[in-house]
């Protein structure tokens, strides 16, 4: 727990508000969910120090998506498709996960991994600025998932909240920002990101149209259900 408030840590992606022993216990429990493709993706993330949500949050995303019978999901910031792997499993063969990422190389990697997992046919991966792609995409969503650059969090929330169906969910990763949200003058990796996350979280908890809570697993995942 001691490193929770260490905003100067060189690699904040490894910090979690969850005690390392508890984290290990949870990961051991999740052992039966091991499968070749997520293991391979996790290994790539480790090698390249790429910030995926990780196994525990992946399982959380899949479980909440299945629990509301989600069939249409929009991801803002998909990386190479790790979080989308869990959503794609949840929506089933008749569902769709619209992925977005600014990096074309991430799309190619996602295609490789999700094809190998037999999930690519339910994924529509678009390259570009996620907010613009969202605005160019019609219809409502069962889930809007936000994992873009943190300064954009309030903007993404404002866009997404309008397009989530009643009973649907808004989910965002990193809402505790490795404990920086609790620090008065945090050392930000990008100036303004911590304040943007704090604003985002305040907006959601004060929105009368949503019920919200934060799962503190890893770096904090907010889930807000539209009434
Ligand atoms: C934290 S990673 C996503 C990880 C992914 N959700 C997972 O857990 O597997 C964030 C990704 O979002 C992309 N990104 C950030 N801001 C974006 C934006 N506004 N539009 C599109 N892509 C964005 C980055 O290129 C990066 O690949």
Q: Could you give the topology of this structure?
A:
Blueprint: H1 20-29, H2 36-48, H3 54-67, E1 72-76, H4 82-91, E2 96-101, H5 104-116, E3 123-127, H6 130-135, E4 141-146, H7 153-161, E5 164-173, H8 193-205, E6 210-215, E7 221-226
Parallel strand pairs: 1-2, 1-4, 2-3, 4-5
Antiparallel strand pairs: 5-7, 6-7
Helix pairs in contact: 3-4, 7-8
S-adenosylmethionine binds near residues 53, 100 and 152.
Q: How would you characterize the overall build of this protein?
A:
- By secondary structure, the protein is of the alpha/beta class.
- α4 (82-91) links the parallel β1 (72-76) and β2 (96-101).
- A 7-stranded mixed beta sheet has the order 3-2-1-4-5-7-6, sandwiched between helices.
- It has one domain: Rossmann fold, CATH 3.40.50.150.
- It has helices at 20-29, 36-48, 54-67, 82-91, 104-116, 130-135, 153-161, 193-205, and strands at 72-76, 96-101, 123-127, 141-146, 164-173, 210-215, 221-226.
- Bound molecules: S-adenosylmethionine.
- The site of S-adenosylmethionine has 20 residues, from α4, β2 and α6.
- The site of S-adenosylmethionine (SAM) has 20 residues, from α4, β2 and α6.
């Amino acid at each position: 727990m001691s490193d929770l408030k260490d905003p100067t840590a060189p690699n904040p992606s490894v910090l979690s508000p969850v005690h390392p022993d508890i984290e290990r216990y949870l990961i051991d429990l999740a052992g039966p969910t091991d499968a070749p493709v997520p293991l391979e993706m996790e290994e790539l993330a480790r090698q390249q120090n790429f910030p995926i949500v990780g196994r525990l949050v992946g399982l959380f995303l899949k479980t909440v998506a299945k629990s509301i019978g989600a069939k249409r999901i929009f991801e803002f910031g998909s990386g190479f498709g790790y979080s989308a792997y869990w959503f794609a499993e949840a929506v089933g063969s008749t569902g769709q996960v619209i992925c977005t990422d600014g990096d074309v190389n991430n799309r190619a990697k996602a295609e490789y991994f999700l094809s190998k997992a037999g999930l690519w046919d339910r994924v529509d991966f678009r390259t570009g600025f996620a907010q613009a792609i969202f605005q160019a995409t019609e219809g409502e969503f069962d889930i809007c998932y936000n994992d873009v650059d943190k300064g954009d969090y309030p903007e993404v929330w404002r866009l997404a909240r309008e397009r989530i169906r009643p009973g649907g969910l808004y989910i965002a990763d990193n809402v505790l920002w490795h404990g920086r949200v609790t620090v008065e003058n945090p050392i930000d990796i990008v100036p303004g990101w911590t304040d943007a996350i704090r604003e985002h979280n305040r907006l959601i908890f004060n929105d009368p149209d949503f019920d919200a809570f934060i799962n503190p697993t890893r770096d904090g995942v907010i889930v807000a259900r539209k009434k």
